[in-house]
Amino acid sequence: MSMRARVSLLTAILLTVALGAVGYVLYTRQAQAKTEAAAPKVPVREDLTALRGAPHLVFRNTALGNGYGEVAIVPLTAPDGPRALTGASCERVYATAAEAVCLTADRGIVTTYHARLLGPEWAPAPTRDLPLTGIPSRARLSRDGILVATTTFVFGDSYANPGQFSTRTVVSRTKGEVIGDIESFQLNVRGKAINAIDKNLWGVTFVDDDTFYATAASGKKTWLVRGSLSARTVTALREDAECPSLSPDGTRIAFKRHGNLPAGQWRLAVYDIATGRETLLAETRSVDDQAEWLDDRTVLYGLPRGDASSASSDIWQVPADGTGSPRPLVKDAWSPAVVR
Amino acid sequence: MYVTLRDRPGEDASPSGQAVARRVSSTVVLLGVVSLLTDVSSEMVASIMPLYLTAVIGLSPAAYGFWDGIYQGVSAVVRIAGGYAADRRQRPKLVAIIGYGVSALSRIAMLPVQGFLAITAITTADRLGKGVRTAPRDALIAASSDPRTLGRSFGVHRALDTTGAALGPLVAFTLLWAVPGSYDSVFVVSFAFAIAGLAVLVLLVPNVRTATAAARVGLRRVGRELAGRTLRRPLIASGLLGVLTVGDGFIYLSLQDRDDFAALYFPLLYVGTNAVYLSLAVPFGRLADRVGRARVLVGGHAALLLGYLLAARPSGGLATTLAVLALLGMFYAATDGVLAALMSRLVPAEARGTGIAAAQTVVALSRFAASLGFGLLWAFMGRGSALLLVAALLAAAIPVAAWLLRGIPREVPA
């Protein structure tokens, strides 16, 4: 092939791939706009203040179109009915009767993240900004709203050590000091302290104003740990349990367990603290969420929609005793919190 | 820097070429462009991977790390095989095309794929491609450069290569910002860049023969070269320095432990290192040609030593963080391309691919061992003490390496 032929061929190839790539991106952009415009308006209601008086479910609205990403509220008596939008935009939200915490991501070329306390009234201006580093993952408040815990992914990239993940889990008093990253707490597994560099802690659920449960991990192992803020220690209770969630009566913990599933998949299970008995729930799909309790008999969790192109997800419910079958509770929703 | 496209490639060891010595061969620039396009492509995907895996595939942090070690080893073995195949067939371009091609195909394979294992397989294919292509590409650079300005040639190539690595994440995040949540767009555009790079390689890079000898090199011949006296010392020196080079991932973790700026902009830290690396790659390459490649290589490790000491300090701030990033960039600029330049003059042309690959493999494996070992040290001694210990060992190793590398000819241009 002559040089001229080579250069012409190269030009043709470059033009083709450039046009193809640009065309694909523009087409996707247009398709997204169309889907958004064609999305059925999610029914909304305006009685936010009245709703807050009764037991309700707080969640992130993921219905495309109006109010995408905003925190919404439905009464527990009619969870599949119209939702009230609060105006606050959050990636992850948690609320109790006394307080609400909202993890946000301000997208840009450099994305920045914030954890904000919004107070029970969903005031537009946050009552407090808490330190937050990395991609929001989990958020929890203690029942009385005095303690708040956030988990984020801090991740690195390098020439020699590709793709290493690391989490940060910060506990703070909503009206007081930032207690700090619980990763610095001493981790004890069967009486031995573990200091490995790859030690990670995430997914806190509070028992009272000192005790909490969480996930600890090192190497390929994870543990359900019980921790104390005053003693600054966490102690492993059992292996293979992530993102615990304490039941309202304080007797059981729902978590996701990996077992011998393929990497990146989990089953929901409930652990009885007194007997140590573990029950697999009827949900057979893989769940990657910190579960929430609707009441002492029912566990809630978010599941992304099956098709990869959809950014939406639904909140599902399943009995906590391993019987029954999963049923949808709220469509187009994520990050549930039950406010009683 | 004076770059010209007028040179004809393949002017290996043209002893009288006074004018040629001033220029970087067009083949080197073209290979740099190929690497730039390919690195835009691969860094685009690499930078969105953590987000993609957690947000779309739904992966917890712990699930991600498990295959780290496996592919490091595979990539190292494949690297030597790539170098040997290039030497054996005396057609490094063909082997390089296979390497770049596998990586390009792995991009488009991301589109229909669901699930963690499939993604792991595709990422591994991409790394295999990278392992295969590196040594033949460096052999091509060596074969089409004037031996006296090899350092500069590799500097030019590494600068272009790193520019691509720095642009990749920016392109990816701009795309995600323009088309939110459309990871497919990122994969398609990444594929387009990979194809463009491959096209430049196939159509424009000349098919340089690396050896004039008609006889093919056999395994025994290559093995004798590797075990021979000339290579033994530099390989030992590379390994010695390599086991004391803890990954910059650890340094970044160490920085973000005590500096909020570093923690907030964690993903940008390596962009800072890359920026320093790409701006210094050519000057340091030229310096290596003038004062000796071994000296610059050793000097780069002195910069690394300083970086350790700064990162080990109990309290830090913005200034410390920036200084550490600059030192890491200097370290890469003074070692990566310079090592390839140094090695390629020590091996006869017909075993060059294998020779370069051997040095790179020794460095990769010893650095991998360093990362494993440093992880343990960190656990036992804490961050600061572990860094100080490695710094002390490195301070002792640098003179030893300098002694091992002494007598490597300084190719001063006449």
Please give a structural write-up.
- The complex is a heterodimer of chains A (340) and B (414).
- Chain A contains 2 helices and 27 strands.
- Chain A is mostly beta strands.
- Chain A has a domain at 1-30.
- The longest helix of chain A has 36 residues, at 3-38.
- Chain A is globular, with a radius of gyration of 22 Å.
- Residues 156-164 of chain A have low confidence and may be disordered.
- Chain B is an all-alpha fold and 414 residues long.
- Chain B is 77% helix and 0% strand.
- Chain B is built from 16 helices and no strands.
- In chain B, helix 3 runs antiparallel to helix 4 and helix 6 packs across helix 14.
- Classes of the chains: A mainly beta (340), B mainly alpha (414).
- The interface between A and B is large, with 64 and 72 residues.
What attributes does this structure have?
heterodimer; A: 340 residues; mainly beta; six-stranded mixed β-sheet; 46% strand; B: 414 residues; mainly alpha; 0% strand; disordered C terminus
Concise structural overview:
By secondary structure, chain A is mainly beta. Chain A has helices at 3-38, 48-53, and strands at 44-45, 56-61, 70-75, 83-89, 92-95, 100-106, 112-117, 128-130, 135-141, 147-156, 164-173, 178-181, 186-189, 192-194, 200-206, 211-218, 221-228, 233-239, 242-246, 252-257, 267-272, 278-280, 292-295, 298-304, 313-319, 327-330, 333-339.
